[in-house]
Amino acid sequence: MDETKIGEILAPGASDETRRREARVRANFWRTAKRAARYMPFMDEVVAAYFCALDPKTPMRVRGVLLAALAYFVLPFDIIPDFLIGAGFTDDIAVLTAAITSIRSSIKPSHRAAAKKALADVG
Fold first, then answer.
1. What is the pTM of this model?
2. Buried b (16+ CB within 10 A) or exposed e, 85-116
3. Could you say which of 62, 66, 76, 89 is the most buried, measured as most Cβ atoms within 10 Å of its Cβ?
C-alpha cells in the first residue's frame, strides 16, 4: 500500500465524519481485534490507540487520525478483505502503523494500562 493511499485513509475528516467513524469503531473494534490478534504483532499498541482515540482529553486532530485508522481496521471489506487468511490484515497493519507512528506521543501510560488490562481480560 503506498503512502498516498494511506494519507487519504488517515485524513481526519469533518466532525460529522469523525462521529460516524467513532460509532463504527465502538461497535466493531473488539470483534475485529479478536480476529486480527494472531496476525498483528503489535496488538497492544492498536488497543492503546483505541483507548487514546476514545479519550476526550486526546486532541481532536489525533483522535481524527486514530479514528480514521481504526474505522479502516474494522471494515471487513477494504483494499485487502480481512477474510483472506494470512493476507487480509496486511493493509490494516500498514494503515495502523502509519497512524500510530504519527501520533505515538499522544498515547499516554493510562491508555497503555487500559490496553494491557483489556487484553488480559479478553485473553
1. 0.83
2. eeebbebbbbbbbbbbeebeebbeeebbebbe
3. 66
Q: Say how far apart CA 53 and CA 99 lie, in whole Å.
A: 11
User: What are the cell numbers at 106?
Assistant: 499522544
CA gap 69, 67 in Å, rounded: 5
E strand or H helix at 111: helix 109-122
Question: What is the tens place of the pLDDT at every residue in 52-96?
Answer: 999 999 999 999 999 999 998 888 665 455 444 555 667 888 889
**Domain boundaries, given as residue ranges, for the chain:** 3-122
